[in-house]
Design brief:
There is one protein chain. By secondary structure, the chain is an alpha+beta fold. The protein has a single domain, classed as Alpha-Beta Complex (Inorganic Pyrophosphatase). Helices cover 21% and strands 29% of the residues. The chain contains three helices and ten strands. The strands form two sheets. It has a five-stranded mixed barrel. It is globular and about 50 Å long. The relative contact order is 0.19.
């Protein structure tokens, strides 16, 4: 990819063109691309081919994400992530999702931010591992000192669990989503490392060819 100081005439792809960890950052600090805000009643998602944010679907219910919602660049949920989930045989084949709490209002998506990883939710969606990393905005005046999931008020995690267990609900249709397992910072970092390994295994050739 581009060396420091080298100008690109084109916007980098948010998934493939950015780093998972900011250069020189402390352990547990990741870079996140934000797709959705807590006020969004429409499901926005990155179009993987173009790198633009697109409308995936309007939410049928009143559910809105309780935190900023996006993904960690250059991660992919496949074989290595599935190995960390006892009740899933495969993963969902998407970048690793991340939810970030911020005390100050962030009112736009399609942005990057640095986040401190504190834990995660082991979500299983129709038999597929679909982990949700939980983090706080790095340097946040209220949450910036939080280092592990136990340091967050339990209601913060409970709201995320409720959102992800209900956001796909459609009248007359059964959904199979489990969000029972919550883990701390140590396991979250292992899930991120597994997702980075999956990315390298599946997409590492993209960067080798550009070297």
């Amino acid at each position: 990819m581009y060396e420091d100081g080298q100008f690109s005439a084109y916007r980098r792809h948010p998934w493939h063109g950015l780093d998972a960890m900011p250069k020189g950052a402390d352990e547990g600090i990741v870079q996140a691309y934000i797709e959705m805000l807590p006020s969004d009643t429409v499901k926005y998602e990155l179009d993987k081919d173009t790198g633009f944010l697109m409308v995936d679907r309007p939410q049928r219910t009143t559910a809105t994400p309780p935190a900023l919602y996006g993904f960690i660049p250059r991660t992919y949920c496949a074989e290595e992530v599935a190995k960390r989930c006892e009740h899933a045989e495969e993963a969902d084949g998407d970048p690793l999702d991340i939810c970030i709490y911020s005390e100050r209002l962030i009112d736009r998506a399609d942005i990057l931010l640095h986040a401190r990883v504190v834990g995660g939710i082991q979500m299983i969606d129709d038999g597929e591992a679909d982990d949700k990393i939980i983090a706080v905005l790095d340097g946040d005046n209220i949450w910036g000192g939080v280092n592990d999931i136990a340091d967050l008020p339990p209601i913060k995690t409970e709201r995320l669990q409720h959102y992800f267990s209900t956001y796909k609900m459609v009248p007359g249709k059964n959904i199979d989503i489990r969000v029972d397992t919550v883990y701390g910072r140590e396991e979250a970092l292992k899930v991120i490392a597994a997702a980075q390994k999956d990315y390298e295994n599946h997409y590492g050739h993209l960067h080798t060819s550009n070297a």
